[in-house]
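FORM 7B: Structural annotation worksheet

SECTION A. Query
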Amino acid sequence: APVVESGGGSVKTGGSLSLSCRGSGYKYTSGCAGWFRQAPGNERELVATISRLGTATYAEFVKGRFTISKDYHTNTLYLQMNSLEPADTAMYYCAASWTSCGSISALRRWSYSDWGQGTQVTVSS
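SECTION B. Predicted structure
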């Protein structure tokens, strides 16, 4: 079954949005799951990860503003985004990996598979 993302949209600076990602299989709950984003002309960058046991890590540019979480029963990954800024404008993707979230590999997008289709987040000033 495909990985299905939902949420996203357009907000003003300081607004909030919530993304969700329904994973297939057990990788999203039993592995390292993460959110990435890609703005036009930029590389896809890691935003946040959450481990099998629920330990979350964040990129410096979203710390204190974004929260990653997951629901083990529904195999769904979430990203709550608060205090949004125009620099957060990008296509957001979810993905999962069997690598440990604490490993160097978890920082690399090629360690991930089962990507979502992407959802656009646009923040205007």
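SECTION C. Observations
The longest helix spans residues 27-30. Residues 69 and 99 are 18 Å apart (CA to CA).

SECTION D. Sign-off
Analyst initials: ____
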